[in-house]
């Protein structure tokens, strides 16, 4: 009879690559994506201001796979045109085309407050 002793690192690697663990990680990433999408819809619906941009540039929630130390990891991200995602998460002051002298400087707007959309998605998961 042969007894094989594995190191902690080897055991962690074997477990993390198992289909059950990988499937659960993917399901959790999709669940977080759903929560974040609902938050994003709520944020969009709570403002009277409109976005002057091509609809293809609207901020969205994406799930992407990435090679992790012990198998496939899943990244849930807020993705948008230029600085849109950062502005939604952390807020900003009107600038560029909405700032003084900009193309839409006369459009009544307000500084968007930080929503912490992604932060709250994970905190309240």
How would you describe the overall organization of this protein?
This protein is of the alpha+beta class. The chain is built from 4 helices and 2 strands; from the N terminus they run ααββαα. A two-stranded antiparallel sheet has the order 1-2. A hairpin with a 2-residue loop joins β1 (60-68) and β2 (71-79). The mean pLDDT is 82.
How much beta, percentage-wise? 5-15%
Low-confidence stretches: none
Biggest pleated-sheet summary? 2 strands, antiparallel
Query: Roughly how many Å is the radius of gyration?
Result: 21 Å
Question: What is the count of DSSP helices, taking H or I runs of 4+ residues?
Answer: 4
Structural class: alpha+beta
Give me the count of strands: 2
How far do the termini sit from each other? 47 Å
Shape: elongated
- Helix share of residues? 40-55%
Average per-residue pLDDT, rounded, comes to 82
Order the strands across the largest sheet as they lie in space: 1-2
Number of domains: 1
SSE string, helix = H, strand = E? HHEEHH
């Amino acid at each position: 009879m042969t007894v094989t002793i594995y190191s902690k690192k080897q055991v962690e690697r074997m477990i993390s690559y198992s289909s059950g663990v990988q499937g659960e990680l993917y399901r959790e990433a999709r669940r977080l994506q759903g929560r974040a999408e609902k938050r994003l819809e709520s944020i969009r619906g709570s403002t009277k201001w409109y976005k002057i941009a091509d609809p293809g540039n609207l901020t969205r929630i994406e799930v992407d796979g990435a090679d992790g130390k012990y198998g496939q990891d899943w990244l849930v991200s807020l993705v948008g045109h230029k600085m849109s995602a950062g502005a939604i998460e952390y807020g900003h002051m009107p600038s560029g085309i909405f700032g003084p002298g900009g193309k839409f400087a006369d459009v009544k707007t307000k500084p968007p407050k930080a929503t912490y959309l992604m932060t709250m998605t994970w905190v309240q998961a």
